[in-house]
Write a structure and sequence with these properties.
- The structure holds three protein chains of three kinds.
- Chain A has four helices and no strands.
- By secondary structure, chain A is mainly α.
- In chain A, helix 1 crosses helix 3 and helix 3 packs antiparallel against helix 4.
- The radius of gyration of chain A is 17 Å and the shape is elongated.
- The N and C termini of chain A lie far apart (49 Å).
- The mean pLDDT of chain A is 96.
- Chain B has a two-stranded antiparallel sheet.
- In chain B, a hairpin with a 2-residue loop joins strand 1 and strand 2.
- In chain B, helix 1 runs antiparallel to helix 2, helix 1 crosses helix 3 and helix 3 packs antiparallel against helix 4.
- The model of chain C has no long low-confidence stretch (mean pLDDT 96).
- The longest helix of chain C has 21 residues.
- Chain C is built from nine helices and seven strands; from the N terminus they run ββαβββββαααααααα.
- Classes of the chains: A mainly alpha, B mainly alpha, C alpha+beta.
- Chains A and B meet through helix 1, helix 2, helix 3 and helix 4 of A and helix 1, helix 2, helix 3 and helix 4 of B.
């Protein structure tokens, strides 16, 4: 029996799970407030644009997006198996690919700002 | 005497044995909402990069009733994820000071406190009040 | 002493005559303070001597009488009849093959237990005349909780991942490996990692947490497994991201 390389996928899952536990609820609350007509100041175009233009914010945003999506992808993979989808390699490839592709897209959009 | 062990195949039956199993599934399904909302934010970044009109259209799209319902659901699931995650943290990260282990509720409690303060700080900095 | 007639529904399976298991119902006159095991003993002694099940100590120490009671893994000797209403359904432990009636085939668990080397592998073997391996109370407390396992396998019957992935080493064996890894006198972690950090080791655990909920000795296997995951992940990243640390 050899030691597994699972830590590659589990490390970012655990980091992302912790990060989303601390951060995601309040971020959703911000967009929900905006949706309900009470737009937080930060979401005004000029402020949001200036905020996202800072390199540190860009780096942090890509990190948050990647870790959030990766941990969600990993959970979805396990849940698929739990619910009887046995094509684990295929499921893993799809969900991780979506997480990586969306993170790369986020980085690309941020570079345009 | 010949042996003929009987093997019971398992599919979904375990989910109905005890409420803890659907609760676990619910916890895991929070990933759909957290992941879905994050993808929506990536879309928001794209619209932000396209200029003021695109950004305004994005904010407008957030206001549709379906989007509000989805965000409210996402918020509920995200909170459920946080609560379950912090409740389980002491198991993964026990802390032994001297001879004794720090009580689970102290470790969880510290996480909940930081979560609350951090959320408040984000709301303040984002000018939500 | 009050008496009550309890309806027991017991899953029966005779490998010589049955194609599949079936329930049989017994009406058992029970005393107030009886546990499910007492009711089964009454059935065997007075109603149906062919009923097969494992038990020994009748005091939650030997770990033999694990079974599904109303679909929840329980020690029959620790399950008081007064805590149940209506018909009580008794089945062999889930996820294990049925040998006969309530007796399961546990070869898989025993083999896994062996693989994780659940015994002290001293860092430096000492001769008898060099004295004992000493340990502080703090060092003892570091792993004490994980020594309480009685190998009753309730955690395996509670764990859906074990049910779905039979190769998974599972809660009790992994917790015992962790118990020795946490022992200051032990030097066998590298050997055990070969098994427990393998894919079918700790990595099939999804932290359902059911193992810890059903454990009659409060070992908290779920905690042990998460700690193994974190330590194995740190190992991996140290080894691969900082190769200059390798010897």
């Amino acid at each position: 029996m050899a030691r597994s390389n699972k830590p590659i996928v589990w490390g970012p899952f655990a980091a992302g799970g912790t990060l989303t536990a601390f951060l995601t609820p309040v971020l959703i609350l911000l967009t929900l407030l905006a949706a309900l007509g009470h737009v937080p100041d930060l979401l005004a175009y000029d402020r949001m644009h200036a905020f996202a233009a800072h390199w540190l914010v860009k780096v942090a945003t890509v990190a948050v997006v990647f870790l959030s999506l990766w941990s969600a992808a990993h959970r979805l993979r396990i849940t698929c198996y739990d619910l009887g989808v046995r094509a684990d390699t295929l499921v893993a490839a799809i969900v991780y690919a979506i997480a990586v592709a969306a993170s790369v897209a986020a980085a690309a959009y941020l570079l345009l700002i | 005497m010949s042996r003929k062990p009987y093997v019971r195949a398992l599919r979904w039956e375990w989910l109905t044995r005890h409420p803890r199993y659907p609760r676990y599934l619910l916890r895991e399904l929070s990933c759909l909402f957290i992941g879905g909302w994050t993808l929506m934010m990536v879309w928001g970044l794209a619209r932000l990069a396209q200029g003021p009109e695109a950004w305004a259209a994005f904010l407008d799209a957030l206001r549709s009733p379906a989007s509000i319902v989805l965000q409210a659901l996402a918020l509920a699931f995200a909170v459920y994820h946080s609560v379950t995650w912090f409740n389980l943290t002491p198991k993964a990260l026990p802390l032994q000071l001297g001879e004794d282990f720090v009580a689970d509720r102290v470790i969880s409690g510290a996480h909940f406190a930081v979560w609350g303060l951090l959320s408040l700080a984000v709301l303040l900095l984002a000018g939500a009040f | 002493m009050s008496e009550r007639v309890v309806e027991l529904e017991v899953l029966r399976y005779n490998p010589e005559t049955d194609r599949e298991p079936h329930f049989r119902r017994y009406s058992v006159p029970c005393r107030e303070e009886w546990v499910v095991l007492d009711a089964l003993n009454h059935v065997k002694e007075n109603i149906d001597p062919t009923l097969s099940y494992r038990w020994s100590c009748h005091m939650a120490v030997c770990g033999s009488c694990g079974m599904m009671i109303n679909r929840e893994p329980k020690l029959a000797c620790k399950s008081f009849l007064r805590d149940y209403q209506g018909v009580i359904r008794v089945e062999p432990l889930a996820h294990f093959p049925i040998e006969r009636d309530l007796v399961t085939v546990i070869d898989d668990f025993v083999a896994k237990l062996k693989r994780v080397k659940p015994y002290l592998i001293p860092k430096q073997p000492k001769a008898l005349e060099d004295g004992e391996y000493r340990q502080t109370p703090a060092q003892l407390k570091r792993y004490k909780q994980f020594t309480l396992c009685i190998n009753c396998m309730l955690c395996y019957a509670a764990c859906p991942e074990y049910g779905l992935i039979p190769k998974f080493i599972g809660p009790a064996a992994l917790s015992l490996a962790h118990r020795y890894n946490q022992d200051s006198r032990d030097g066998g972690r590298e050997e055990r990692q070969q098994e427990i950090a393998a894919t079918e080791g700790v990595w099939e655990c999804a932290f359902v947490g059911a193992c810890s909920e059903v454990c009659p000795e409060h070992v908290d296997p779920a905690a042990a497994l998460q700690q193994v995951k974190i330590k194995s992940t740190v190992d991996w990243y140290l080894e691969h991201a900082m190769p200059w640390l390798n010897k």
